[in-house]
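Quick review question:
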């Protein structure tokens, strides 16, 4: 068993098939230098650009995000983040709270997060919580999620440089095929659908109450974010129920959909689909939301010269990429 644990630790340090940079790069950040940690779905991944926010405000932001990030993993990502950082603020994307519970969570959605976590008790707890939420049963007591090499052992011959757990130097920002997608434009001509009320699935209620209890017990500074996207009538109804529960516990919510005019959003040019902005829209949202954060919250001044140089280098590389595309 000890050998299994040691091999699992080496495997999760060196190689991860679901090699998402936003989780992987986080471990390479200098300790206690993040002002804000954002946790969420592809809405954070596509709509928010930490490098743009850093350039505008001088604060350090880090996004832990992936497409389809399951709701129960939010708490465990907060726990994981605090192993390395003591952020002044957590921003939590509410997109997952609008989805119809366990029916929208796949094994792949879970692995995109947990396979990127270093082996620890927190990873084990995260796996158990996510699989329980999704109603996914395993034949080996979840061990192939705890020790992902048990699941991927037959894939060694397909291993590539993309799977190596190396830092990208882009503060979690990825310049892979998603960036090419982020440059696309699709005329949406959409509006923001507000539902006055709704009902959350029972598993979402349990999960949200557990998250709010964790936040309260640990006295964490948290802002909930409704991302700038089109919600269907059913998603909006579930979101309204989540909003009501969160507000009843005294927590603040920033609804980006109430700030389209301030952002200067053009629905004919700033979205790539009804759920995600493209690069043009993301720059606009990031600018307005970053300013809101610095105007409403106090952030620690970090004077780490190496960290500042790393951010400047990452920003320059990011700008060079988009200038050439």
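Suggested answer, residue by residue:
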């Amino acid at each position: 068993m000890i050998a299994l644990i040691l091999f699992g630790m080496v495997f999760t340090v060196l190689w991860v098939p679901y090699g998402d940079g936003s989780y992987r790069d986080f471990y390479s950040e200098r300790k206690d230098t993040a002002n804000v940690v954002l946790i969420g779905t592809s809405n954070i991944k596509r709509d928010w650009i930490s490098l743009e926010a850093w350039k505008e405000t001088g604060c350090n932001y880090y996004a832990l995000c992936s497409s389809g990030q399951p709701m129960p993993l939010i708490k465990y990502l907060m726990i994981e983040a605090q192993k390395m950082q003591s952020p002044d603020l957590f921003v939590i994307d509410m997109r997952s709270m609008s989805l119809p519970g366990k029916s929208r969570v796949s094994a792949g959605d879970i692995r995109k997060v947990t396979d990127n976590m270093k082996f620890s008790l927190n990873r084990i707890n995260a796996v158990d919580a996510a699989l329980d939420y999704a109603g996914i049963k395993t034949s080996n007591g979840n061990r192939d999620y705890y020790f992902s090499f048990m699941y991927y052992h037959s894939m060694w011959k397909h291993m590539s440089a993309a799977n190596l757990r190396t830092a990208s130097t882009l503060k979690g920002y990825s310049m892979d095929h998603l960036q090419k997608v982020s440059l696309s434009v699709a005329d949406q001509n959409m509006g923001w659908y507000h539902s006055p009320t709704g009902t959350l699935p029972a598993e979402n209620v349990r999960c949200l109450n557990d998250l709010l209890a964790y936040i309260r017990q640990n006295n964490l500074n948290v802002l909930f974010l409704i991302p700038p996207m089109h919600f269907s009538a059913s998603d909006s109804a579930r979101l309204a129920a989540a909003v009501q529960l969160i507000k009843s516990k005294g927590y603040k919510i920033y609804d980006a959909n109430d700030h389209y005019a301030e952002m200067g959003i053009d629905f004919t040019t700033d979205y790539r689909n009804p759920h995600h902005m493209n690069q043009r829209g993301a720059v606009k949202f990031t600018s307005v939301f970053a300013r809101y954060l610095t105007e409403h919250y106090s952030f620690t001044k970090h004077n780490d010269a190496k960290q500042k140089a790393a951010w400047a280098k990452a920003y320059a590389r990011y700008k060079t990429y988009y200038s050439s595309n």
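Why it works: The first helix runs from residue 2 to 14. The chain has one domain: 2-9+23-148+167-323.
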